[in-house]
Amino acid sequence: MDAITIREIVDATGGQLLAGKEDAVVTGVCTDSRIFQQGDLFVALLGENTDAHRFVRQVAEQGGKTFLISESDAAEALADANVILVRDTLAGLQALTHYYLDKIGVGKIAVTGSVGKTSTRDMVYYILSEKYKTGRPIKNYNSDVGIPLTVFTFDSTMEMAVLEEGMEHAGEIHRLADMTRPEVAVITNVGISHLENLGSRENIYRAKMEITDFFGRDNVLIINESCDLLKRSRIHGDYKVITAGETGTEDYVVSDIRDMGLEGVSFTLTAGGESREFRLNVPGAHNALNAALAVAACAQYGVTMDQAAEGLRKLQLTGKRLKVREARGIRVLDDSYNAAPDSVKSAVRTMEATPAERRVAILGAMNELGDDTPALHYEVGRYAAEHGISLVVGIEPKAAEIVRGAREAGCDALYFDEKEDLYPELPKLLKEGDLVLTKASMTRHFWEIADKIING
């Protein structure tokens, strides 16, 4: 992070300097007292369960010199410190993020979507990095707090930034777009994640489209037109729209997709009269469309197809996404980061395209699906049974419908109430030559199952 002065923080946040020196500087931003470092601005956020104002004294004792607070009483514990009072510390953090992005002057591409946004974000990063010094999110940070923490790891030596913008409710992407003001945005798809909160796919579409709320004539929206709700004809904003898809009518046309299972994917991409073959060393045929969106986004900054292909050749996905792990002759496809019906089906298709003596799917709850939760879990179970899975293992109550669907489609299936009930059975259930998928919503921590299989 480039150093910024207390005066800059006060001006950017609209705060009041209660104590301290305007010309003092900070060299980092922190919201967690446990990882505070010397030189950080400590932002005392008010969370659902914790008020970080309780920890300002502790941070001061650790050497903290600069604080952003919304409770003036907290200043009493901060002798000899720079103390900035704002009405709302989260809003202050986001205003400072907006200011800092302008200050360092990076180009900005933002990615959102129901499924595939983190993978597409990673692809954008690897492609851009062939031409520019590029920053990307820490871990899976894509929220009101996560994006600021990412941005404050950037500095003015960076030329480009790729950001991920997530949501659970309407209005959230609007706030993130206001904070980041991307020049180019990508919407990967509109699925059924968040149905519980938003009620319909049409409402999810509107929420995703908030990423364009601050767009003008110089901005570009990249959409996956293979998604039924993402059509150029539906979009009427005063900005450029570029499409990718498989029908042959899009600006970026994906064809000749070859799913090689765990070995990856190859495909042909055609744009502007130029065609090129691409190879991804990560599994999942759906990633061909994600890659097309990433190539289209990076082309807005002069990245060539050849540069894009070289960047994608180096691609490594963040976190527990389609990671292949192996021990004792058992291969595990660890796709535990998150789950929705479409992403589970995609992982099953990857399994189906991979040679194996036996394919086992260990599946758990898919969250935020609303009234359709039982039916969608049942559908996933049937789909797994019909696409090469020999044994389905469902864990926790929602997954009981996955098991029912698999059984009714003629597949062997087992149900366990909790992960811990499965662990003693793993040595008996799995054998050399098995290919095993672990997948559920992130809150279920299914990577722990993958770890148990690998570590024995």
From TrEMBL:
Residues 111-298 form the Mur ligase central domain. Keywords: ATP-binding, Cell cycle, Cell division, Cell shape, Cell wall biogenesis/degradation, Cytoplasm, Ligase, Nucleotide-binding, Peptidoglycan synthesis. Residues 321-441 form the Mur ligase C-terminal domain. The keyword Zinc does not apply. GO terms for biological process: cell division; cell wall organization; peptidoglycan biosynthetic process; regulation of cell shape. It comes from the Bacteria. One of its GO terms (cellular component) is cytoplasm. InterPro entries: Mur-like_cat_sf, Mur_ligase_C, Mur_ligase_C_dom_sf, Mur_ligase_cen, MurCDEF_CellWall_CoF430Synth, MurE/MurF_N, UDP-N-AcMur_synth. ATP binds at G113, S114, V115, G116, K117, T118, S119. Pathway: Cell wall biogenesis; peptidoglycan biosynthesis. It is an enzyme of class 6 (ligase). It holds the Pfam family Mur_ligase_M. The keyword Cell cycle applies. It is found in: Cytoplasm. Its EC number is 6.3.2.10. Involved in cell wall formation. Catalyzes the final step in the synthesis of UDP-N-acetylmuramoyl-pentapeptide, the precursor of murein. Belongs to the MurCDEF family. MurF subfamily. This is UDP-N-acetylmuramoyl-tripeptide--D-alanyl-D-alanine ligase. It comes from Hornefia porci. The gene is murF.
